[in-house]
Design goal:
about 400 residues, alpha+beta, Rossmann fold, Tumour Suppressor Smad4, 2 domains, binds adenosine-5'-diphosphate, binds magnesium ion
């Protein structure tokens, strides 16, 4: 099985990163009361590293001597793993660094990857304690598999890497607004959903994607008739270049082939190592964010949305089974969007059905699902939030591309 990367040999030297602030603030007691004993019994030599601030783990991982460690494991929510992955891909030796086996034990309020790992191993929905036990067991077992990562481009700032989700509209708002309920644990998303439902709003934007299958068979769900395929004609700009751009006439002249575009391309993939060189794999499917999309992309015709959610793991939270057929290494972005016009009751029904992964079977006319390799979103509403792996990022045009199996995860 080419997906299975082998297992961790013993003795295994593990760096165990703990965010003492995550979730109810219980990650450290999770270690003291459960994890320490579990790892010792399994013969896993580990060093506990307690983070002191946001981006501490990212900075540490970027500078660490990785030859000292067989695995990097976090006890936290998804936010700390996001830091670790981005730290690894910011290194000049990123190609080796991102092969380091990663692991996660649920210690936050958003434990989506832990819930996904448990699901991939064949487990059914469990309580938080059972989830910890299950993930602890899988960690000690030490089977390493490839995991997809998605590169995310924003209009400014460096390129980011994401292992879980890219969200805009309802889901992103709930994620960020519910952070103030972090102390209640995973229930924060339920509370946040109910609060946001009361003030449901419509988000304007343009969405386009590159379907995963050549024949577009992968597109599912209702609303496909509302998308149109571009056929060989100049693609409309999703995001017009600024008027001072040297490439503003690029639709009509040969700007694509001259050097100014090359410069722009370089600028559009700006994750750089400390030494200033580009780090991370190149993106092969994405033109620069201010350039038109190739003709094989699908442009979603409607511009009024309640949410857009791109997922690459099965679970968005412990009780949100959002992408039931997603797997760790399928090389697919599971794109969902909900068109405006959905009633509060219907949206609530969708989220309730999501607990069992049954939302696609509810025949909701407003929900669309597509399997894609890349996507671009240009928000048109002045206000809104975009999240990557549950962390808020710059609001504005964004595009993303999947990199199949780029990282390694200890999972069942
Ligand atoms: P939760 O699931 O509760 O959101 P996360 O692991 O996602 O928990 O962490 C939440 C945020 O806290 C992330 O943005 C992470 O980068 C940040 N963080 C990590 N370590 C610390 C720390 N020591 N103090 C404060 N924030 C931290
Ligand atoms: Mg989080």
């Amino acid at each position: 099985d080419e997906v299975l990367m082998g297992d961790l040999s013993r003795p295994c030297r593990m760096m165990l990163l703990v965010n003492p602030q995550s979730g109810k603030g219980q990650a450290l007691s999770v270690y003291n009361n459960h994890v320490q004993k579990m790892l010792n019994e399994a013969g896993v030599v580990h060093t506990l590293v307690i983070t002191e601030r946001q981006n501490h783990a990212r900075d540490m991982v970027r500078e660490a001597d990785l030859s000292q460690w067989d695995a990097l494991v976090i006890i936290s929510g998804d936010g700390l793993l996001y830091e670790v992955i981005n730290g690894l891909l910011e290194r000049s030796d990123w190609e080796d660094a991102i092969r380091k086996p990663l692991g996660i034990l649920p210690g936050g309020s958003g434990n989506a990857l832990a819930a996904s790992i448990h699901h991939y191993s064949g487990g059914s929905a469990v309580s938080s304690e059972e989830l910890l036990l299950s993930c602890g067991f899988l960690l000690c077992k030490g089977l390493v598999r490839r995991m997809d990562l998605v590169s995310v481009h924003l209009s400014s700032g460096p390129r980011l890497f994401s292992f879980l989700s890219l969200a805009w509209g309802f889901v992103a708002d709930v994620d960020i607004e519910s952070e103030k309920y972090r102390h209640v644990g995973a229930v924060r998303f339920t509370v946040g959903t109910l609060v946001r439902l009361a003030s449901l709003r419509v988000y304007k934007g343009r969405l386009a994607y590159l379907p995963a299958a050549k024949d577009h068979d992968a597109r599912q769900g209702l609303g496909d008739d509302l998308t149109r395929r571009r056929k060989g004609r100049p693609a409309p700009l999703l995001s017009p270049p600024p008027t001072d751009s040297p490439c503003r006439h690029s639709l009509h002249n040969s700007c694509h082939s001259n050097n100014s575009l090359k410069v722009r391309r370089t600028e559009s993939t700006p994750s750089r190592s400390a030494a200033g060189s580009l780090t991370g794999p190149p993106d092969s499917l994405l033109p620069p964010l201010d350039q038109p999309l190739p003709p094989d992309w699908v442009v979603v015709q409607e511009e009024d949305f309640v949410l857009m959610l791109a997922m690459y793991q099965s679970h968005l939270a412990e009780d949100l089974f959002a992408a039931p057929d997603a797997t760790l290494n399928d090389g697919v972005i599971h794109l969902f969007y909900v068109r405006a016009g959905i009633s509060r009751a219907a949206l609530l029904r969708l989220f309730l059905a999501m607990e069992k992964g049954a939302h696609l079977a509810t025949n909701c006319q407003h929900l669309v699902h597509a399997k894609v390799r890349a996507l671009r979103l240009e928000p048109l509403s002045a206000k809104g939030k975009i999240t990557v792996d549950g962390e808020v990022v710059e609001y504005g045009p964004v595009q993303a591309e999947v990199h199949k199996g780029l990282s390694r995860l200890i999972s069942g």
